[in-house]
Amino acid sequence: MESVSTLKNKTTIKELFSDFKQLTKVGLSVSVVFTSVTGYLLGAEEINSTIILLLAIGGYLMVGASNAFNQVIEKDIDAVMQRTKNRPLPSGRMSTTTALIIATVFTIAGIAILYSINAKCALFGAISIFLYTSAYTPLKAVTPLAVFVGAIPGAIPFMLGWVAATGKFGVEAGFLFMIQFFWQFPHFWAIGWLQYEEYKKAGLHMLPMDKKDKGAVAQIIFYTCVMIMMSVAPVLKVTGAFYIHPITAVIVFLLGTLMLYYAFILYKTEKNTDARKLMLASVFYITIVPIIYVVDKFLH
């Protein structure tokens, strides 16, 4: 039979690992790594598995650092909200010092690994961490424009992959950035709609004009339309080496209209259940579209 102390140690290790995952938001970090890798596959003439591995580790560390710093800064705000009060810091399971050490180590290691790919990757990684922690996080408590600032670091991963593959930031990387940049507005505003009461209680401004109304959904619809235009633009051969074929453009357009459909439904009903559908449709979109781009490249 295992001793009580052995069982306690096992539980403690499991809890520590769980807290570590929550602090660095493993799920989000993995999705960012996935987007970066698809960006790399789009830009690469020859696939280099070492670069993919470095990009994946560097990207994970970069997002993990941003999330850890974010939770240190928002410890008191997280304590107020139902959704976040059980995170490691507000619950008291982890000290601020520990979280800061993890965040700092992740930052240094992440930027160093990205630098080993090329200097531009490291630069964009550093910009991403800086903007997320020093601009987006504090601005959330001040103005709804925080979402615009947060969309910049949030749009870097797709582009980062291209820069890792080519060493260049040109029109192609710019378009990949724009696609993910405009995607974030319907995505985050759908979350802002769902969590409106919680955010309001915590003093965070996450909806345009700070109102949960048709005006907010009108902006969601507008940005979804811009996102769709950006996503299909490569078919017009205006995006340098990043080109998609007409059939791919049609598929991407249809996936965009799925998001648009749920946005219009939300405009009509203003119900949380429809905001959730829009949010899930946006996650589906940003997962599937990069895969479709990669498939398009390798099939032709």
From TrEMBL:
Keywords: Cell membrane, Heme biosynthesis, Membrane, Transferase, Transmembrane, Transmembrane helix
InterPro entries according to UniProt: Protohaem_IX_farnesylTrfase (IPR006369), UbiA_prenyltransferase (IPR000537), UbiA_prenylTrfase_CS (IPR030470), UbiA_sf (IPR044878)
Subcellular location: Cell membrane; Membrane
Major enzyme class: transferase
One Gene Ontology term of the molecular function aspect: protoheme IX farnesyltransferase activity
Residue spans crossing the bilayer: 26-44, 50-73, 94-116, 122-139, 146-165, 177-196, 216-236, 242-266, 278-295
Record bears the keyword Cell membrane: yes
Name this protein carries in UniProt: Protoheme IX farnesyltransferase
